[in-house]
Every structure is written in structure tokens, then in C-alpha cells.
Amino acid sequence: MRASAALTAPEGAAPEDVLAWLSRRADQGGFSVRPVPFAEADGWYFRADTGDLVHRSGGFFSVEGLHVRADSGEEEAAAEWHQPIINQPEIGVLGILAQRRGGVLRFLMQAKMEPGNRNLVQLSPTVQATRSNYTGVHGGRAVRYLEYFMGPRRGRVLADVLQSEHGSWFLRKVNRNMLVEADPAADIPEHEDFRWVTLGALGRLLRHDNAVNMDARTVLACAPVEEGADRALHDDTELLSWFTGERTRHRVRARTAPLGAIPDWVREEDRIRHEAGRYFEVVTVAVEAGTREVARWHQPLLRPCGLGVTAFLLRRFGGVPHVLVHARPEAGLMDGVELAPTVQCTPANYAHLDAPPPFLDAVLAAPPERVRYAAVHSEEGGRFLHAESRYLVVEADAATAAAPEPAGYRWVSLDQMHGLVRHTRYVNVQARTLLACFACGAVDL
Amino acid sequence: MRASAALTAPEGAAPEDVLAWLSRRADQGGFSVRPVPFAEADGWYFRADTGDLVHRSGGFFSVEGLHVRADSGEEEAAAEWHQPIINQPEIGVLGILAQRRGGVLRFLMQAKMEPGNRNLVQLSPTVQATRSNYTGVHGGRAVRYLEYFMGPRRGRVLADVLQSEHGSWFLRKVNRNMLVEADPAADIPEHEDFRWVTLGALGRLLRHDNAVNMDARTVLACAPVEEGADRALHDDTELLSWFTGERTRHRVRARTAPLGAIPDWVREEDRIRHEAGRYFEVVTVAVEAGTREVARWHQPLLRPCGLGVTAFLLRRFGGVPHVLVHARPEAGLMDGVELAPTVQCTPANYAHLDAPPPFLDAVLAAPPERVRYAAVHSEEGGRFLHAESRYLVVEADAATAAAPEPAGYRWVSLDQMHGLVRHTRYVNVQARTLLACFACGAVDL
């Protein structure tokens, strides 16, 4: 699959029309999202025995405590901390329906409101459903277009893989990422919340801040890409061996603990916060919406403190583009470690420490001609409130490019990344956003 | 890698000499393994608060309770049960050192005593070490040949992947499986407990009962095999999508629980057993050995009730061999489901039920000319006592071969299996034993 130059009709809507439509849907939706004290959050309460924040149905998700002990070999100090974490064990479906028209692949994208999104309405997958959604547990409408992803009528599968989500905020969360191609001859009605958009147009939209939501980005990252026979710096066996070594070296032991009893975190009337004001807060919001499955509800959201920076350093080896990948431990990841961007952090959380994370300064100080991609995107707006990060692809300078890779980092070719993302839990969700930008042609290579 | 016809010197020991050597090592070792009551097991005790069986050092492993709830969609009844489970969160290393001599790849295999093995001494990987072993926590000797697998002197990696172990008996256990090739010119001393053995000789040895231990089998399963361009019945995308669907369909929720409080299991002086005498028992043994790292010790072992049957049905599509793979849920697997053999069960556990597991009768009733492989092997002798299963590869009869695959089963080509086993947690440990038999040429194809 290659990003086509086709940006407009007849295959799909033009990028500027999509942006105008998203804006219109946001205005027309009559949406409001406002913080409320925990005591006013209908349906949600703190369990008396554990202090965990749960829904009275026992469904949706819960906010629990987590006790983490992590070490990475003899040389570095072991770390131990407590934190709140979102526990949502069910596997949701994120599915994008594709269809070939006039030789061009187009994607059926949804204008979807999520309370935590900046701008509220962003471009989303065709289907974005928790198990509760698609089995009807919370009494909403049937999920549109679900039949193309499940059951006997489904189309030809282009990608279908379980992928992890944010390891610092979710406890072992995975979602099913599906890209399915419908028959070219099928007449698929475009419901008013949906538009056909080409890959080229998606690439353009990804250059805008907060236009394409996280769920769409992670599915697009899994899109099959024509693999070249290009030589990578490290062959696949070496790459997998290095990664196995990193997974073995880092011991991340995370156990749930009663939220009401974890140290260093303070519960107030309207938030749970770290005592130093770092990392994130847990809040609840009241949501009103005209177009979502249920028109009014309350829910907890996790609100990060500060804008993140998420960046790949880029360089070519023998003309083949490679990104500098970090084998990054995260407490909520099932395997402890996944492949992350070169830089993935919220700089404000490091202000009290002596040293910034590796490569952060190199990324932030890069002159404009080395910045191949830059845009701010929101993370999952159904669970995170204004969780924004500046996503960057930056050409490495001569000094960085020439230096040997530090422990925990490897240059990996884009082809290798596209190969790994077909399998579960190699590539973390932040790296998948940047991979989607490559796949859709949003990065100036 | 292909199984070579070379069975003997100068590249490696002949199969019959290896068998004689294993037998001699068993006789010379002065080994004894005898059951003892829990109260006499030095260093092991039941925690007062939970009833979990633990070591006083806090190390090695523990036997805890597990509460499992499993369902697989609307049609089938949900299941719920409790069981003891072995919890050993550390990642061990199973490594086989290879070296090319005269064009033939040979493997440095160890004669290793494990208390639970039938025959006690079996052929083992070059290195078989828990993290406690190789960091010296329990005060044993340094691990021989470890330098070829770790650190700056290590050889060329042929395979290096984290693999799950028995999902019914271990809680989310993974080990690092490594196959490393030393420089052909290196002079590697053959310590008295070690012998060089060719792939062809390993294939012959795998046709003997209880000669090659589980740890050796799982590493051999990961050996790189020359991949053909053969067409599989289901292409890789279809295969991965089916597997993703199976992982999504099965919900396996397993939480540890106090061993002392789980229902249906009875703790007696010398065993913990299921009240109906099914599944397995937890016992402790006193071990005396002359050649192991520590000469005397006590430890718990899990003793299954009855001989298992583990079998792949085999057929060709367009001349290409395929095995019928089962997407099998197991409570202790991190992802709930992995790819298992067509049949994997202990028939005695089904005696009280109306129906045997699918394909069990087809496998057991097969006439000799359709049995392409048959041998009894022991599972991990360091944790399981006489955990034996009859491993089989059986050519499918015309009726089975012609029928559509039932839900949860797929015909997968051997090439596809060899490709998947390079990644973590696709192929379960029982299927890996049979894959090793294919890789070593032990199956009459």
C-alpha cells in the first residue's frame, strides 16, 4: 500500500473539506464536557474496601492502584513507585473499512466525539467499540458497519492484530486493530457521521494538530506496506535478539494495589493527584452529547500534567531510512517492554531531575530543516483528558548519527517496523502514531 | 537448516553412544529422588496468611492458588474453576551452542539430571539456567558455557526468543530460548557432562522415549529452517487474523488466590490433590545428586495424574505439509490462547465426561501406517514429576482431511509454524516439541 497522490473526488473527500466537516460536527453536536466532583459522578463510586474507582454496573473500566518495582540490571538503580492505573480488561475493536475505487484505496472515517479530545470531534475509525459497546451492555445503539468486521459478511482482511495501548496509564490494555477491504462493487452507504477519505488525504490530515484520533492512527500504522528488499543495518535475527535481551534485562513487576492506600497520591473532592503535582490527575467529567450512543453520562478521565514530546530520530543507512527505536519499559505493558520512539516523555516530569531523557535536547534543538514531521495529537479521548503530545520526526545530526547506539536503542528500518507491527506487542502506541504518519506519507522523507 | 544425514563422528556422537552415555551418567550420579511429607521439606513452608507453598529465601518459585473464569462466546457455557499453579516470574535462559564442523552443524548437549524426569538424566541444552542460577542466588557453581550466550564473547545468534511454558501448570512463565553458533575455528572444550551431537543424531534420539528433555526440544523448535516459497492453504494475513479472532473470542480471566482457601483441592500431609483425584498433585521430594549445582535439596514438584496425548494431524495441500493447529485457551498463558497441537489432553481427566476432546479418537485409532511419529517425552523435570505425554504425528484420514476445519482449528503449513515460532507466544510448548521433531527430521514426512 502506498500513499496515493489522489486527495479528492471521486475517491474521497478533500482534506480541507474533512476539517470543515469535523468542525461543523463539533459545533452541531451540542457537546459539553465539564469537570464534576467525584460525589456528583452518577454511577461511579469509590469502593469502600479498596478505594478503587468503579462503575456500579461492574462494567466499563476501573481506576485501581498499581505497585511497580522495576530494575534493568546491576548498573542502574532499581525503581519502585505507586500510581493509579486504568484497568479495562476487555478487548475492543478498532476497525477501518477500506474500498478500492478507480484504483485508489479509500477509507471510511467517522467524525466522533470523545470527551477527552482537544476539539472534541476528531477523525476516527469506522468502528471503535468496546466489547460492552458491541454486545450492547450499556444499552446504546447497534454499532454501524460492524458486519464488515465480524461474521460471515466481512470483507477481505488487510490487517488484524492485537495491539497494546498506553503502558503508563492502562493496565495491560489491548485492542484489536482491523483493516478490512470491502468488495469494490459493494454499495456502502455513507452515514452522516462518516466520510470516505483516501490515504493521501489522511496523510495531509495527519499534518494538522488534533484532526486524526489515536484509534485511527494505530489502525493506519498496521496497514500493509509494500516491503522492499532493502538491507537494514541489523538483520531481523539480530534485531529480534536485541529485543529479547532488552525484555529479559528489564524486570518490571507490577501488581494492582488498593487505590485508597497507595502512597504519594492524594485524593481530593474533584481529583486524585500526585503530591508533587507531577504525572497526571484522575478527574471525572459530566458529558452531554447529541450524536454519541448515549446522550448524557459521567465518567472518569486521566488528565496528564503537561504536553508530551514523542519523536523519532531518522537517518539513512545505504539510502534506506531507519528510525532510532527505544526498548522502553512501561509498568502497564504485559511484557514490560515494547519498541518506543527515540523520545517519549513529558518534559515537565523531568524538571526536578538533573538530566533530561536521552535525545530530548537533540530533538527540541533541531533546526527547522531537519524536522521532517511535526504535529500535536491527542491520545485516546475516551479515557484521557487533553492528553496531547507533540509528535516529531527529526533527521539526526551528524554527531548523533555517527555515534554508536546507546544501550536500549537501535536503528531499525521502516520496513522492519512495518513487519513487526503485524504482530502483537512489539511496537508501542506512540511509535504506532509515527508509523501511521510514515505509512500515510505525512513525513517528508 | 536441514537435518543432515551425518549421524556420527567426526562431527558428533552417534545416537546409540549418546543413549549409553545418558544411561551411564544416570548410574554414576548416585541420584535419588523420594517423596517426603511437606513438614520434612527443608526450606519450604506454607505461608500462614495465604497457605501458599514458598521457599524461605523468597526465591525459586512458589505454588499459589488460581481462580479462573473462561468463556468463549455466547454459544458455549462459561467455565470457572480453582487450581494450584506454579508462579516463577523470573525469565530463565535455555541455550544451545552450535558449531559448524566439516559443513555440518553440531550442538553441544548436556547430560542433565532433573528430579522429575523419567530416567532422571536426559539430553539438555548447553545452558539451562534460571535467573537465580546465573546470578548465583542459591550459591551453586558458575554456569558453564554461559559466556557464549551473554556478553561480548557471545557467538552468532541463530534464534533468540521468549517462549511460554505449560499454561495449565505455570502462571505466565516465559523462558528465553537461544540458539547460538560459535566460530568454526573456536576450540570449545567438551566437559564430561557435555557431548557434541548433530541435528541428524538429535532427530534419531527424538524417536526414543524420554531421551531429549523439554528444554532442549523447545530450543530446537526455534531453529531457523530454510523457508520455501510453498503456498499455504491460508495466507499469513488470514492466519494471523484467525488467531487474533480466537484470542479475542476467548476470555480467560485468571487471578491468583490464596492456595489455602481454594475450593475443590485438598491438602494432605504429603500432597495437595484434587478431591476427585483428577488433573495433578503437588508433592515435595528429597533429591540427592552428585553432579548438579547443589548436591542435596528438597523441592515441590507437580505430578500430573495420567499419561498425556499430544498429537498433530498432518496432511498435504498441493504437496505442502500442513498440521491441524488448535487455538487453545490455557489459564496460565499471558495472552490466554496460543497455537497448540490438534490434540493435547490427559484422557483420564475426560473419563467422567460424555465426550472426549475433538480428534482424540481419530488419533488413537489411526492404523500404524498413518503414524508418522510416536514417542513418549517428559515435560520440564525441574518442576514436574513424571509428566509424560505420548507425542504423535498422524496422517489425517480421508474423512478428516476433507472436512472443513471446526471452529478453533486451522491447517497451518510447517513453514508458517517455523515463521511464527520466531516470535513470542504464538506456539505453545507442546506444539514446539512436535515442531522440534519436524525440524530435526524425526518425523517420516
TrEMBL record, chains A, B:
Alphabetical list of Gene3D superfamilies matching this protein: EvaA sugar 2,3-dehydratase subunit
Protein name in the entry: NDP-hexose 2,3-dehydratase family protein
Source lineage: Bacteria, Bacillati, Actinomycetota, Actinomycetes, Streptosporangiales
Domain of life of the native organism: Bacteria
Coiled-coil region list: none
Organism encoding this protein: Streptomonospora mangrovi
Residues binding dTDP-4-dehydro-6-deoxy-alpha-D-glucose 2, per UniProt: 168, 265, 328, 344-346, 349-350
A GO term, aspect molecular function: lyase activity
Record domain dTDP-4-dehydro-6-deoxy-alpha-D-glucopyranose 2,3-dehydratase: where: 16-222, 237-437
Alphabetical list of InterPro entries matching this protein: EvaA-like, EvaA-like_sf
Entry binding sites for dTDP-4-dehydro-6-deoxy-alpha-D-glucose 1: 44, 130-134, 215, 380-383
Classification via Pfam families: Hexose_dehydrat (PF03559)
